[in-house]
Task: structure prediction
Amino acid sequence: MGKLRFMLCRVVVTAVLATFLLPVFGPAQERVGGHSTPAVSSAAWVTDSVCSDDAHAAFHSCAIEAAKTFEPPRTVDGQPNLSGIWRRRSAAHESLQAHPRTLDDFGATSIVVDPSDGIVPLQPWAEAQRRYNRLAYIHHNAICRLDGLPVTMYMTGTYQFMQSSGYFLVQGEEAHAYRVVPLGNRTHIGKRLKLWNGDSMGRWEGNTLVVETANQNAKPWLDQRGRFYTDEARVEERFTLIDANTIHWQATIDDSNVYTDPFTIALAYRRSTVEDFEIWEEACFENNDLSAEMFMDVGYKIYPGITGDEARRLKAAWELEEGER
Amino acid sequence: MSSSQSRFRLIAVLFYFLPLLGVGQDYSPPRTEHGEPDLQGIWQALNTAVWDIQDHPATLGVPAGQGVVIDGEIPYQAWAAEQREENYKNRLMADPEANCKMVGVPRITYMPYPFQIFQTPDQIVFLYEYVHSIRNIFMNSAHPEGPIQWWLGDSRGYWDGDSLVVDVVHFTDQTWFDRSGNFHSESLHVVERYTRTGPNHMLYEVTIEDPEVFTEPWKMSMPLYRRQEENSRILEYECYAYLGNEN
Amino acid sequence: MNLKTKKSFVPVLYGVIGFFILRSAETHHSIAAQFDMTKEIMIEGRILEMEWQNPHAWLQIEASNKDGQPEIWQIEFGSANSLYRRGWRRDDLPVGAKVSVSGLPARDGSRVVGAEDVTLPDGRTLFAGTGPEN
Result:
């Protein structure tokens, strides 16, 4: 009887959690309040689109074409309307490059669309540094730090975009992350001010919102594999609606201290279909002591970030070392 | 009396009485494209409420201040008044702000950091510099069913004339109203009113209700000031990242 | 407490499924940094209380070690928000109930389990899928 109940339990758990496996990236039931009946079996976002998002590179090429002829819905002041609740279609926070599903990873194709081989063009010293990072340091998200750019745009699964009065606002529920992008003609803050999320400025180019970010403190990583950038990095993002329910997003990361060339990543945001979804407060640091203790107990340290100067010194040391081998 | 004299008297009488009718007294704020008072911008409180919401003399590192509590007294129940004294003694270690935690409502408003208001008809967003706190005020909607404990509660808003009224419930009991140990329970219920009073000023009024801690509701009131710098931004105060321990 | 290595297919599959209790699409730090994903741990105990918090909700249970001494174990779930949205409420917790917990053991050896399955005597699984009234 015990064994039967045990097997039955497993079947029940399997059946219930099958709804979590389809679709891959998230549970189909997210509801506001009350003991409401969850939606099951269909994706929690619009899947009907001219461009499939299974493979990032294919999505990227398709989206660029689709954007040429799509006339987006507009806000009252005539800008394409990016507002809404969006699901990012990627697991790039695990690794920017192609990686399989494992017990720890959802898995995804590479979101690197340039270079076309999908490999992040780390300089040799930086690849060695990345491996060390991964062993030695805990990922910033695990200890409730902000994600920086571009990572803020793919760290979590559900976002709210809002536009109003000369600003573009992005919220992700996890650890109450947000970023504010002032639109129009502004100057960057002074070089001595380094921020986790840097300083962003946006402008419209046709139907595309272009956002430039500088002044980052470079403490967050690009992914859980320890890919990193320095405080001199510059990031340019482009947001374009390609149909009523899909945003094409791309980011070009330019940091010649770390990468051989600027490289570009791209992914899709799909409009959420969850009715009346609200972003709620998700505190992080307030109740994270036990988890943080567990990371430190197995030897992780907190990643200190890296300046352009430090990177150049490390690179010079690496090349000297390599030259002497 | 000639007709021009009587017209003059009529106008004088009207000028005398109009203010009593409230006409010309209240500031009429600019409106968003949706017709609501525009609260957007970067704002900050400029008082000592974060130290102590009541009248307090100066001490080392703490400026003197006049309280923001209406009528001065906080109507604690007897046990709670003692708890407040206990909190005060332990404040350097026990204050959530000293531990880099979120500080609750209304304290987040009068923390010594700016905040930005971002407004759409369905949702008004308050973005605070202190540990990137954020409050989404969902307009004309119901609180989700409890019990829920959020550090900044759940906020539901509506317009009452030109005032934004925000009803907040679903709090933890872990936050304090100030650095002096004024506190509340999970039953805290806050009602805020935001009313623009001029191009660069807003009146912030708060009603506090908590039947587990106070004998009756009580109120606070203070002006909020628009930041004037041309390049004004919300920056970052990532408190816990500066703590130095491995957390 | 029963610790075993995941060698056969069923436990591996179960781990993959259980993975989705521990995390939704919204939690993103690496589980492997905190828990040993090559092993599975099983504990029986009774529910003391639950901390309904973000970023993780924690279930506290009292189990007996092999000397019969009581030990407090913490069972880590996803965020309280995600449990709420799946229909679970603080008052649904059957305090005092006996549960069987299986999940991932902590890498640092502490009495913490990354929850995969928490089963009540009547066979119901706590906090998986949808709430009790669904």
Notes: Chain B is about 15% helix and 25% strand. Residues 30-242 of chain B form a domain with the Lipocalin fold (CATH 2.40.128.20). The two ends of chain B are 84 Å apart (CA to CA). The interface with chain C takes residues 144-145, 147-149 of chain B (CB under 8 Å).
